[in-house]
Amino acid sequence: MSRPRSWLWPAVAIAVLAAGIGLSACRVAPRETDHAAGFRLVVAEKRAEPTVSAGSTAEREAVDRLKGFLGNWTVETIQSNTLAVYAPDAWFNDTLKTVRGATNIQSYFLKTMKNTESISVQFEDVTRSGDGFYYFRWVMDNRLKSIARGETLRTLGITLVRFDAAGRVTVHQDYWDSTAGLFEHVPLLGRGIRAIKARL
After folding, report:
1. Residue 91 domain-assigned?
2. Backbone phi, psi, residue 90, to 5°
3. pTM (two decimals)
4. Which among 50, 66, 37 is positioned nearest to 131, based on CA atoms?
5. Cα pseudo-dihedral 75, 70, 48, 46, rounded to 10
6. How far is CA 145 from its chain centroid?
7. Cα Rg for the chain, rounded, in angstroms?
8. pLDDT band at 31 (very low <50, low <70, confident <90, very high)
9. Which residue, 104, 43, 54, 109, is CA-closest to 77?
């Protein structure tokens, strides 16, 4: 059996290295979460639907209605206003849970209020993007019944929203630090989170 020619070894090494790099690249490709995939799909779906016109009375009323609703939650306002604020097939995610449908969103809000003494949101500003989505920047004060009792937890966040032609919310995606606003205050879990942050 003849020995491989000397020039063949470098070629084999390069081929093996290239294959390894290719496989490595496949392994580090991002794996999309269910939430991210669902969000992309609903945004594509809703982007094709009509929305309120920029600068219109309907736009101003839709923005004011959402700000008023989220600004100071109570069981009564959730029961009486959720179905007027959110479209029947609205998609909602607050970083903790994804909910579809206005009646399901209402149920989730009511469940949230059972564990909460009070929630108030102060809106800093609202910006409309070119494709009909709105960004609401806010400060939230939250008093929970079983976590950090007696304390008001203040967090910052942004809510991405799209309205339908009637001014009801069809997409609601929150971006906020739920770790600082909630999980850091859970016994044991909070200690672990703070220890991890201290090492960063």
Report:
1. yes
2. -60, 150
3. 0.74
4. 50
5. -50
6. 24
7. 24
8. confident
9. 109
Question: Beta strand 86-93 with 116-128: parallel, antiparallel or unpaired?
Answer: unpaired
Residue 23 in domain: no
Q: Is residue 145 part of a domain?
A: yes
In CATH, what number is assigned to the domain containing residue 42?
3.10.450.50
Per-residue DSSP letter, 54: T
Within a domain: 142: yes
Domain count for the chain = 1
As given in the structure block, the two tokens for residue 181 are 């606003």
Spatial CA neighbour of 143 closest among 123, 117, 107, 168 = 117
Structure tokens at 78: 């959730």
Q: Whole domain around residue 107: which residue ranges? A: 34-199
Give me the residue label for tokens 């109570």.
74
Q: pLDDT tens for residues 97-155?
A: 899 999 999 999 999 888 888 888 999 999 999 889 999 999 998 887 876 567 888 88
